[in-house]
Write a structure and sequence with these properties.
Layout: H1 5-15, H2 22-28, H3 40-61, H4 67-78, H5 80-89, H6 100-104, H7 111-129, H8 131-141, H9 143-147, H10 158-168, E1 175-182, E2 189-195, E3 202-207, H11 210-221
Antiparallel strand pairs: 1-2, 2-3
Length: 222
């Protein structure tokens, strides 16, 4: 079933843009499992616009940053997980139109579907209002994340530094093995083992997320 006009108005309010052609917004939240008129092409367009706008924002915010550092930071900002977080902040899953099979399997909660829908909305805003409106939309969605960035975010993380160091001395990249997890979310802890031929034995670290534990292990290895 298609999204109601009332729900489309709610979604417009959340993305802070009023469509002249509401069918574009409707299409942007329609998954391919529902039919041919879906959001895949809009997602393709929105992905390019998102990368451009975020790149420009980072370029202006960090005038002394190197290209590689900006690329890494942009990748973190536009990755699927970040987009899915934004989608959940918008409660976007409740606005999605999809086929019954996808709906029953919980597609409205899947990171890939949520992130694609955010990009499709950006593409729809561009088609409806142009690049200025699309830019404002992206900057609005990313306002808090961009404001939270500092120069420390530009510094390479420990895993990147360890990988570059090992490659520089002709060694293979390390492996990060999940040893175990204890507790229940949100108080769960993870133990990670970092393995590499370049150092004897293994290095273990514990963190409140798998990523944090991996970063700690890499820092210890360095």
């Amino acid at each position: 079933m298609r999204v109601s006009v009332t729900d489309l108005k709610k979604l417009e309010s959340r993305v802070a843009y009023t469509f002249k052609n509401a069918s574009l917004l409707d299409q942007s939240v329609t998954h391919r499992s529902f039919g041919d008129r879906n959001n895949e092409r809009l997602e393709f367009l929105g992905d390019s616009i998102l990368n451009f706008v975020v790149a420009a924002a980072l370029f202006n915010r960090f005038p002394e940053a190197r290209e590689g550092d900006l690329s890494r930071l942009r990748a973190r900002m536009v990755k699927q997980q970040t987009l899915a977080e934004i989608a959940r902040e918008l409660d976007l899953g409740g606005f999605l139109t999809m086929g019954s099979g996808e709906l029953k399997s919980g597609g409205f909660e899947r990171d890939s579907i949520l992130s694609d829908a955010v990009e499709a909305i950006i593409g729809a805003v561009f088609l409806d209002g142009g690049i200025t409106e699309a830019t404002d939309c992206v900057l609005g969605l990313y306002e808090e994340r961009l404001a939270a960035l500092t120069s420390s975010n530009i510094e390479k993380d420990a895993k990147s530094r360890l990988q570059e160091h090992l490659q520089g001395i002709g060694q293979p990249v390390p492996d990060y093995i999940l040893v175990g997890a204890t507790g229940k979310s949100p108080n769960q802890t993870f133990e990670i083992e970092c393995r590499s031929l370049s150092f004897n034995g293994t290095i273990r670290a514990v963190g409140t997320s798998r990523r944090r534990a991996e970063q700690k292990a890499a820092e210890l290895a360095l």
